Amino acid sequence: MGREPPIIAAGLADVLVGSLQLDFAFVRLCDPKGGGAIASDAGHAWKAFPEWLRTHLGGVGQFSCKEIVADLGGAETCRGIVIPIGVNAEAGLVAAACTRTDFPSEIDQLLLSVAANHAAAAFQNARLRHDTRTRRSPNSVKPATNSR
Question: By C-alpha distance, which of 16, 27, 72 is closest to 47?
């Protein structure tokens, strides 16, 4: 059985922090047809990355391609990455930050991209299931069954 959109976003953020040993993960999934966006985060990043992310999320087409964010200052060196889902992030994005010196490695980038696309597909399926359920009328006629 599928999961609801908020559970998909929260679950992905938690899994990314745990499995990739990230300090912070942010997931935003959007309905390209204009429905609402679902966002969730997990972990703790150096303060500058979530602030940087917040200021850049408002711009339309802000993230047209993957963006690696260098250290924005602070006591600890930390790097971030933003991976858009869909054209100009119309389906959402995944962002992550980590203090590992090699972050984001090519493997990190690949795993984050795969996770982002998988979450977008799961989100779309959840929306389709919801739309199908809401279109069904409670008084709909059920097909007759042959009983002999």
Answer: 72
For residue 11, give every residue at least 6 positions away whose Cβ sits within 8 Å of its Cβ, in sequence order, or none.
3
Distances (CA, A) of 95 to 15, 126, 141: 13, 22, 46
Per-chain mean pLDDT for the chain = 78
pLDDT in tens, 31-89: 766 667 888 888 886 667 777 777 777 654 567 778 888 776 666 678 889 998 877 77
pTM value is 0.76
Q: Cα separations (Å) of 58 from 63, 88, 118?
A: 10, 12, 24
Torsion angles phi and psi, residue 141, rounded to 5: -80, 130
The answer to whether residues 91 and 85 touch, using CB atoms and an 8 Å cutoff, is yes
Q: Are 30 and 9 in contact (CB under 8 A)?
A: no
Widest Cα–Cα separation across the chain: 78
Tokens 């389906």 locate to: 91
Ramachandran angles phi, psi of 96, nearest 5°: -145, 155
